[in-house]
Request: fold
Amino acid sequence: MAGLDSNPQPQQNPHQQNQTSTVFFNKGEEVEVSSEQEGFRGAWYLATILDFPTPSQPQSASEKKRKAIVQYKTLVTEDGPAPLLEQVDPQLIRPLPPQDSLKNGGVFQENEAIDASLRYGWWSGVVKKVLDRGARYMVYFDNPPDVLDFDAKDLRIHLDWVDGKWVRPEMQQVFLIFLKLELSMFAFLLFFGV
Reply:
């Protein structure tokens, strides 16, 4: 399992990172998969690799980029209870985060970047307020703008997978994300006259 960089430099959005080191996954390996589809950005879903393109598979400039095939653990097809199978860009796949990111002792601070278990995946957000002495947390989300309360057990530390390492955003970055969320919510309320 990859290590955690305890002194990360400012990171880009995982979808916009320059992937200088490509990670390859084996058939049957459990991973997390994200999406660039509207309504799913910022969320990571548990899946199993069914097929992953290797460097030995030839690609020409005119050939469509090879995709990985994954089977989701928590997402199902529209017409039944069967697990959803999907072809995905390999850059939207990452290993499972370290197990200690799930625990964190259930203690988070205001303005800390977290992932919350929501709608069958892990969604990136920011702790707005600590409730019930740390048993519950008020969390802001950017996409779509929302504020929800969570039990500590449904949160984990937010980590980004950058150049083959797990890194944690610095608190300064989290504050800027939080400020952006506050402005988004304000604009939303102004627009809808709430």
Residues 1-21 have pLDDT under 50 and may be disordered.
